[in-house]
Amino acid sequence: MIPYIIRRAVATVPVALLVTVMVFLLLHITPGDPVVIMLGEEASPDAVAALRHSLNLDRPLPVQYGLWLWRAAHGDLGASLRTHDPVARLILARYPTTLELTALAMLLSLCIALPAGVLSAVRRNSWLDAMVTPLAISGVSMPSFWLGILLIWLFSVTLPWFPTVGFVPLRSGLLENLHTMTLPVMTLSAALAALVMRITRASLLQVLQQDYVRTARAKGVRGPTVVIRHALRTALIPVVTVLGLQTGTLLGGAVIVESIFALPGAGRLIVDAIFARDFPVVQGTVLALAISFILVNLGVDLLYARLDPRIRYG
């Protein structure tokens, strides 16, 4: 197990480097000069040139990337071009909100999708299956920004149950925090819940046709015990795979959801930095999100062995 983890950790280094290269190139080919945005269009050419030189933006792109990569390898992600605050401090201040939003969205989606998928598979072609399947298709098809707007209209405007925007930190109170996070979590979890429900249904239907399940039923084991203790554990392997892959989708969706509900998370930090052409903030935040995605997928691989004893890592 330990050698496998070491190999996977080493393999993540090229992936992280590729992500940083792609983000660096995309930022520099995007129209807009951060120096002009900072000083204004009426600034003198001498002032623009002096600030660009002080920020090393007048150097060739390979040199700029090399300087940033060297500092990042030593734990220094640079400073914001706008506020001059360390990028690492900005990420640490915003990242917990994004992690909470993503974790709550995944938890809510599992609480909805797993029971719905199991019931839909056990009662195949019933009225329950016919009702759940269209809801799953609707959840996958609806864009998160449109669902967020609908939830705001229903639960904030028509029924003033939840705030339209705003955020209460967890340290200020659990109930207050959950009250402000309800609509964002519902918005972010809808698509994942629909996808996990469909995967759970399809996987469980396949497992229920296997020989060991029929043998357990032939021995007189009760139906719920067969499904929960024998079939579901094997059927969860594709579900866990989807959850690992969808972590990147959740982190990407958090960018949109945090902008809609004005949450002070890493996603909104990226959006604001992109508009301001704040290169160090965008690069550092995307790198943090990419590393999180890599670590989650490593955890998914390790979880396979817990779900299926036949899986071994040498």
What's the quick description here?
Helix content is 77%, strand content 0%. The chain has helices at 2-29, 34-39, 45-54, 61-73, 87-122, 127-141, 144-158, 174-207, 211-218, 223-261, 266-275, 279-307.
Set down the secondary structure blueprint.
Layout: H1 2-29, H2 34-39, H3 45-54, H4 61-73, H5 87-122, H6 127-141, H7 144-158, H8 174-207, H9 211-218, H10 223-261, H11 266-275, H12 279-307
Helix pairs in contact: 1-12, 5-6, 5-8, 5-10, 5-12, 6-8, 7-8, 7-10, 8-10, 10-11, 10-12, 11-12
Characteristics of this structure?
314 residues, mainly alpha, MetI-like fold, 12 helices, 0% strand
What features would you describe in this structure?
The protein has 314 residues and is mostly helical. The protein has two domains: 32-76, no CATH class; 95-307, MetI-like (MetI-like fold). 77% of the residues lie in helices and 0% in strands. The chain has helices at 2-29, 34-39, 45-54, 61-73, 87-122, 127-141, 144-158, 174-207, 211-218, 223-261, 266-275, 279-307. Helix 5 (87-122) crosses helix 8, helix 7 (144-158) crosses helix 8 (174-207) and helix 10 packs parallel to helix 11. The N and C termini lie close together (6 Å).
Domain module count? 2
Percent in helix: over 70%
Instruction: Find the structural class using helix and strand composition.
Output: mainly alpha
Distance between the termini: 6 Å
Choose one word for the global shape.
globular
How do the helices and strands follow one another from N- to C-terminus? HHHHHHHHHHHH
CATH architecture of the largest domain: Orthogonal Bundle
CATH top level of the largest domain is Mainly Alpha
Number of helices: 12
* CATH-defined superfamily of the largest domain: MetI-like
CATH topological fold name of the largest domain: MetI-like fold
* Rg on CA atoms, Å: 24 Å
Number of strands: 0
